[in-house]
Amino acid sequence: MSEQFPALVVIGPLLAALMVSVAGWLRPRLCLPLALLGLGIAAAASTGLLAQVLAHGPISYRLGGWPPPWGIVYHLDNLNAVVAALVSWVALVNLVAAHRAVLTDYPDKIGPFYTLYVLAVTGMLGMVVTGDAFNLYVLLEITSLTGYALIGLGGGRAPLASLNYLFLGTIGASFYLLGVGYLYIVTGSLNMADLARLLAPLHGSLALTAAFAITLVGLWMKMAFFPLHAWLPNAYGFAPSPAASLLAPLMTKVMVYVMIRVMISVFTVEFILREVLLSQFVVWLAVAAMVGGALMALGQRDLKRMLAYIVVAEVGYMVGGAWLGNRLAMTGAILHIINDAVMTFCVFLAAGCIFQKRRGTAFEDLQGLFKKMPWTMAALAAGALAVIGVPPTCGFFSKWYLIRGGLEAGHWGFVAGLIFSSLVNVVLFFRVFEIAFFEPLDHGHGHGETGGAVALTEAPLSMLLPLMAAALGLLALGLATGPLVERVILPIIPAGLG
Amino acid sequence: MEHYIPLFLTKYNYWVYTTLMMIGLWAMIAKNNLVKKIVGMNIFQTAIILFYVSIGAKYGATIPIIEHGAGHGAEAAIRAADYINPLPHVLMLTAIVVSVATLGVALALVINIHRRHHTLEEDEILEQLREP
To answer: What residues form the membrane-spanning segments (chain A) (predicted)?
Structure first.
């Protein structure tokens, strides 16, 4: 059984998505249990895989028994085993919290919502475990298409935001496909390990540089790296809150993982270290992302949109870390993928809890919330401390590695940008806390049928428990940084990095 | 100059796909009507499909179907140059499915937008959104 885990990670949720869509027509009550079952299988299998990979080294799984260069391989090493476990657990915990929001906001769309949700997670997990460049494109589009639909479910400006995301996302995916086409022309292979072997003698050729640049631009569009981030704030700001707390933490992080995978497993470190000018350029773009994301977040008057701009800045941290070109920074980038997924999840879920009760997340809606929703706000505060980077939450440790990496590379701009954006995060979150703590709840302002101030209570338990799990996860990850770096991350940092 | 003419003539498939791609990109950026933008997106995707299809083609080659019982031993050996490369074509079947699905999602979103704003001109929609 356990040797089938790599297939099970993808097949489990895929079959569940099919059954959920049928259940949506016949028995909508069965949708949630089926979705939970599918994601539960994925979470169990990915955890099992992580244990196997840590104990016995990388796993190669041949789909249909075809040997690697011809068939599609699922290749798991420390890097993607840990990302797969992360994706499946965050998605599972968020699904529990999504239940109430879906019942109140989309009672007639239960079937479609859960189907899209499970399919999106299937696509992400597939992208993470696959070892085939073209297979990755298909799974990327599965995730993106379901993501567009999930965002489009929201009211107001959501469909327009989703359509803009669709345009930019399609351009991004098409660029990735084009880059893979160039690689196929020069090598005749699509398997990542095979590509790395065949590309080694071609380093320095113009076609390869073109393929690299085109692929990267495509991936950057999908991850909302700074000048290409325009779609993200609207898409995640207007998305239904359960969809936002699935996509915002996971989609960008999975794309950063794909970028690192393409960098170290397809083009290899030797190729990247040759492109010194490109590396310099990308790190400066990352600095622009950190500073620009932070400044644009300052201009927002809505919690969700503010968080969306913080995501733009966080993408800058990870991309910059991956391109600084030393072991410490790469460790920091990979660690930040894990940490940032959990902390973004925590703050977006808290925003979802607030939306559930206040029907809005504009700053005026936050007044008096520390009194009325103490647990939600406590979790938001924990998430905020992690985003700022206060020890012992996990955010501190990945930033620590990133800053040390920046110092070792002698890149003062990166270090300054990272510290600046962390300081702006302090301002951003303490402004939110000031409103929520000191400003009294405006009695005339209450939206919706709750009648405002009097009836406002803590979020339902089914949302609060996942939120607590996420907040505790921040602390647990922070305390587990040592073993996480030692056992999981260091073994996969390529030896070529200085 | 003479150097560039053969480059242009022998690699014309690349010029065709680049031109198509830029036409699509231009439509997505410059057009105001959402459906025209979607048409542009489709041209963009089709350009890449054409690129893949063209790289599988070979001069004087035929479709990759091999007859049974054509011979034994050395006679049965296949000369790859006689057959076009089927792999990029098969990949593009998947890419076509993806592009059709993208088109479907985009049109569904457009219907949703039209129901809400009663127009598909982007500037009019943005103006409506600014008003309240």
So the answer is: 6-26, 33-59, 79-98, 110-128, 165-186, 198-221, 254-273, 279-299, 306-324, 330-355, 375-398, 410-430, 464-485
